[in-house]
Structures are given as C-alpha cells and as structure tokens.
Amino acid sequence: MSIYAFAEKSNGKVKRIYANTKYPSQQDGNILFDSDDKIDLKYADELPLRVKGCYSAVAFRSKYILLSRDVIGGRPLYYHPSSLTVSSFKNYFEEEPVEVMPGEVLKLDYDGSLISRKTYSFEEVFPKEEADVEELVERIEKALTSFNPGTACLAFSGGVDSSLLASLYDVQLISVTASEKEKEWVKNAAKQIGKDLEIFTFGEEDVRNALPEVIAAIETCDPLQVSIAIPIYMALKFAKELGYSRIVFGQGADELFGGYKKYEALEGKELEEQLRSDVKNLGKDNLVRDVKLGYSFEMKLITPYLQWDVIKAGLNIPIEYKVRKVDGNIIRKYILRELALKYIPKEIAYRDKKAVQYSTKTSNILMKIARREGMKIREYLQKYSKKYVRKTEDGKEFWGI
C-alpha cells in the first residue's frame, strides 16, 4: 500500500472516509499524494498541467472526490465507484477496480457517480518546439547537474545512464547481479569514476524466494515484466538493508535518447514517432512496475532523467542525434554519450550495455528454474499468480488477493 482510502457507509450513504498513506506517498490534510511537486487544489481541474513531475493524487472535498495522474502515468492509482475505495494497488479491492488513466482529472460524487472527467494529452504538457540542439543539451545538462537527490544510493550498472548520474551526485553506488562478468565490470567502472561501490551477488535461491513477492507487487506474471522486476527488487531490498529509503535509477534515458536495440531498425518519421510513443507510455510499460516495487519496500525512486525539463528538451532533440551512424556503426543514445564524455571516461560513455534481465543473468536463472519444473517460464510464473487473480461474477479475471 502507498495510498489507500475507503468509505464506511450506512443505508447507502457515506458516514466517514478512512484514509492512509505510506512512504513515499504522503498526506496533507484531505489530500493523499505521491509527488515531488506541490498539489495545489486551487488548480484542481488542471493538475496535469500544473504539477511538474510524475504524480498520483486523491483529494476529499466537501462535494466530491478528486482523483488525478500525470500524463505519463508514472504513479499508479485505482478506484471503485460503488465502494469508494482508492488504492495504489489493484489487490486492495474486493471487486475489479477502475484505473485512473494518465492525464485524467476525475470528480466523483459521494454516491460513486461520475461528476466530471477531463483528460489532458501528452502533447499539451510536452509540446513540440523549435530549438538549437546545443541549447537543448545545455538545458538537459543544467537540469541534471542542478538536481539534488538528497540522501540516497544509486543503482549502478556501469552503463552511460547510471555512470553519468553517479559522476554528478554524491551518493553511494550499489549493484546487484548474478553475473561474474558484470560484477567485474561495475567494479572497474566505479573505480574509474572514483566512487565506492557495494555489490550484492544473487543466485537461483534468491530468485526463487523473490518471485512471490515480485509478482504480488507488480501485479502481473508476464515473463518480460517479471524478469526486469527481479533485479530491481534485489536492488531495492539491498538498498533497504543498507539503511536507505531513497534510490536513484536511470529510468527514462533509453526512451528519451534512443537506447533500445529496436530503434536501430527504424528511421525517419517512424523512429521519431516510436521514440515519442515510448516516452508517452513510460508509466504503462515501465514506471508503474518499478514504482509498485518501490512501494512494497516503502522506498522512493529518484529519477533525474524524468524531470519535466529533461523530458521537454529531450523530446525535441532531432532523432539523428539519438540514433546515429558513425564509421559504419549505429550508436544509440549518441547525444547522451557525447554529453557524458564531459564527466566520465569514453570507455564507459560508449559502452554498449545489454538489457538488465540479460546483463544480470536473471532471464537465464528463470529459464533454468522453469526447466527443472518441466515448464515454460510463463507457465511456471502463472502458478505464483493464481492466489492473486480473482474472477468477477461474469467470469472476468482481475488482479486481487
């Protein structure tokens, strides 16, 4: 739980509202929210335009309940109109919940009926603009260098995303992996940038033990999502054991600057549209999973690349500065690597890194475990999800306890 509220009713009328939050969400009077920016109800009808960052918010007003999320959908939020239950997780509901969609501002009557719904588009918050590449990069650099992560550790992979952040902030570096090769690389990379590093090496038994908690937290047994979630879970658990409640991640850099392998097969307008779409869907595809894992540990995820100023500038950098052919080789995240050269060695800035589920050998471990059970990965993971999936009266499945 991070945000949770429900109504006590008598004869169909609301007698009182019970509400609670757990860190990193917080409560300010009648407002429950997860946001780094202020939730000012003076601008309640246009929160997605006013709040400069990912957020979810619930406010209990005298005549209605307000629910809202940012246009990326970076923080999860669900509700059920008849029970007037609101939560960051689907498994807190007795019936199938309704998801507050990215960019929405909803007003519900206390009888559960919808008073109004307004949806702000991604384009309204992040419009296209004309600017010199040098100016855009300068804005990104300024936002990253002036960012203050507070007392936090940083999830370090030795790639350009995390290494650039590690060089900019005075934070403890941590790494988790099941790969000896990656372990040696992150040690080397941390040494090159002059930072201390704590490493947790996990194995098959750690993955087995983590699976039920991971699947319960991310509320899906999709093999790709689970394989990505496991090393994130390990990093959060390790950070918590080291005494941290805040952890810096490099989320958003791949989508903003063209880091995924799939981008190499695209070009022109198709590549531009794919990059913009991937940023727009960051919540659905990645952030909600990661934030839910953070909620399960009461850990705050710090994401410098997802500052609104970085997103606004990053979206407007031409695609030829993101995916670029140099000496016959395709360089992904070209502009970010060039910026990083001011702060980290070229060997690190230009290192081509595998996706986390492969570099940490998490996918290999999952396949081995499933094979020993005589199952495919999806089938193996589904056995863990059965206790969380329920059916409504019409037979439709939803995620719940």
Task: Explain what this protein looks like in three dimensions.
Helix 3 runs antiparallel to helix 11 (308-315). A six-stranded antiparallel beta sheet has the order 3-4-5-6-10-11, with no helix packed on it. A five-stranded antiparallel beta sheet has the order 2-1-8-7-9, with no helix packed on it. The protein has helices at 47-50, 122-125, 133-146, 160-168, 180-192, 204-218, 223-241, 253-257, 268-280, 282-297, 308-315, 334-340, 346-349, 356-359, 362-372, 377-385; strands at residues 3-10, 13-21, 26-28, 31-35, 55-60, 65-69, 78-80, 85-87, 98-99, 104-108, 114-119, 153-155, 172-177, 197-201, 246-248, 300-302, 324-326, 329-331, 389-391, 397-399. It contains 16 helices and 20 strands. The chain folds into two domains: 3-124, Aminohydrolase, N-terminal nucleophile (Ntn) domain (Glutamine Phosphoribosylpyrophosphate, subunit 1, domain 1, 4-Layer Sandwich); 128-381, 3-Layer(aba) Sandwich (Rossmann fold), CATH 3.40.50.620. Strand 13 (172-177), helix 5 and strand 14 form a beta-alpha-beta unit.
